[in-house]
Amino acid sequence: MKIVVITPTYNERDNVARLVHALQAEFARVPRHEWHHLVVDDASPDGTADAVRELQPGRPGLHLLMGPRQGLGAAYVRGMRHAMDELGADVVYEMDADFSHRPADLPRLLREIECGADFVIGSRYVEGGSIPAQWGWHRKANSLLGNVVARYVAGIPQVRDCTAGFRAIRVSTLRQISLGELRVQGYAFQVALLHAAVTAGARVKEIPVDFVDRTHGESKLGLRDIVEFVVNAWWIRFTSSRTFLKFAAVGATGVVVNLGVFTLLTSLGLNKYAASPIAIETSIVTNFLFNNYWTFRARRGNGRTRIRGLKFNLVSLLSLCVSYGTFVVLSVLFPAVPPQWHQLAGIVPATLINYLLNSYWTFPDLERRRASELLRSIPATPGDVQQND
Ligand code: GDD
Ligand code: MN
Is 75 in the pocket of ligand 1 (CB under 6 A)? Predict the structure, then answer.
């Protein structure tokens, strides 16, 4: 097989030469495969690329790909495309250039590919894996929180280390994913790619690795990456959740009902101040009925319809307040912007709150809750991950 180890670099001059040598030594230990090393550098000002160029003569398997700095994910997308289309890879690795991932672990990941896995993760959070002992509580908390968001918001609960940057991936799996549609530039790429692979039906396997703290240079993770990470997790949740799409569709019918009833009543001669609340409540009721009998149909067994209707009404009232609150705050903060934009912006937080409250309170998925409690009480087998439906 042709294997391409992709290491993105930004200001890794102090690591990259050592890394090239370390990888070559590892490659030589598994001669049954054709190994390549692709460095994806974003014109690092410290001259990382020059250090690679100096090593290239006599090393046909050492490649350098340059580009503008757009983030870790953008660098990986470029690197993966190059590995697939120019180098003809069968398997690609993701690996950091700062020795946080031990070159000696490369063959262990490959063994799982050889045994039939499509997507192998060098995992810090399965039994036998570890993070550096010297990490302070905030780094630990950051990493754990990142994984909680990835697992439970993006919806990949079966994978323990969703953010890991040490992976071996079959190109046949990558080809099923349109990298351009992942819409992420930074570290969020790790979760976006994993989610896309799981959705494509990839056989994912986690194997334990020890994550080592870098001794040279510094981490490039920035605030922008963190914001993108959280937004991306929600984006994945909402676009891959049929329930949310149905909920949004029902919301749209509510708008039509609201305006339709309002027009009808006023044309029948009713005062517009009386017509408005009647139209609003009618749309809340029709929304409830659609959600009750369609969106959340599978959860209807949980509790009485009348109670659910009441809860739904309360939630609608609360989202009205959220929407109005947003309108007021934005109007005060940005008085020069036309008020229609403030009114429109209010829809976003109101819909999110509306959906979350209705999904977890009005129409709770008791069956799923029971199942995950059951799962938690069963000790997990390290490393074995099933596909999520
Ligand atoms: N080309 C390029 N462009 N490379 C980048 C960029 C970029 O914008 N940002 C980071 N890199 C390179 C670094 O030079 C390094 O080789 C590798 O990507 C990882 O970057 P670090 O900055 O060392 O990441 P980290 O140690 O904070 O994060 C690691 O752990 C995370 C999970 O906790 C990485 O493995 C992440 O991928 C992982 O999500
Ligand atoms: Mn690092």
Answer: yes
Tell whether ligand 1 has an atom less than 6 A from the beta carbon of residue 98: yes
The per-residue pLDDT for range 296-332, each reduced to its tens digit, is 998 876 678 999 999 999 999 999 899 889 989 999 9
Does the beta carbon of 139 sit less than 6 angstroms from any atom of ligand 1? no
Beta strand ranges found along the chain (DSSP E): 2-9, 34-41, 62-66, 91-94, 119-123, 167-170, 204-208
Q: Residue 175: what residue type?
A: R
pLDDT tens for each residue of 62-83: 999 999 999 999 999 999 999 9
What are the φ and ψ backbone dihedral angles of 207, each rounded to 5 degrees?
A: -125, 145
What phi and psi values does residue 334 have, to the nearest 5 degrees?
A: -125, 70
* Half-sphere exposure at residue 204, Cβ-oriented, CA atoms within 13 angstroms: 28
Task: Tell me if 161 CB under 6 Å of ligand 1.
Answer: no
* Ligand 1 close to Cβ of residue 118 (< 6 A): no
| Interval between CA 219 and ligand 2 midpoint (Å) | 5
In testing the pocket of ligand 1, which one of 5, 7, 10 has its CB within 8 Å of the most ligand atoms?
10
Distance CA 170, CA 89 (A): 9
Full DSSP string of 324-360: HHHHHHHHHH-TTS-HHHHHHHTHHHHHHHHHHHIII
Kindly report the pTM of this predicted structure: 0.76
Q: Taking the CA of residue 344 as centre, how many other CA atoms within 13 Å lie in the half-sphere pointing to its CB?
A: 5
- Listed in sequence order, the residues at least 6 apart from 338 whose beta carbon sits closer than 8 Å to its beta carbon are none
Q: 91 in helix, strand or coil?
A: strand
